[in-house]
Model the fold of this input.
Amino acid sequence: MKKLCCENSLEGCEAIKAAIEAAGIPCVIRNEATASLFVDQAGLEWPEVWVVNDEQFDQAWALLNRPTEEPDRFEVSDDEADKLKET
Done:
């Protein structure tokens, strides 16, 4: 399992997780419990998205960091999801 990213909100992590899973890449969110408590306090951890299978990390990273002009960069089309599953 590898950490893909962290966000300052649980909603952001959930959007990323949904997009990555739409491409057939299993992932999990960690530090969910502290997400609601976070107010720039030392010692609390940001919510994180982790890719379950190490061998799929590069695919997930490419999806997360793909260039786009769309306002919601985490929205994945069916064609895009199919292409990521093939690689």
Summary: Residues 2-86 form one domain.
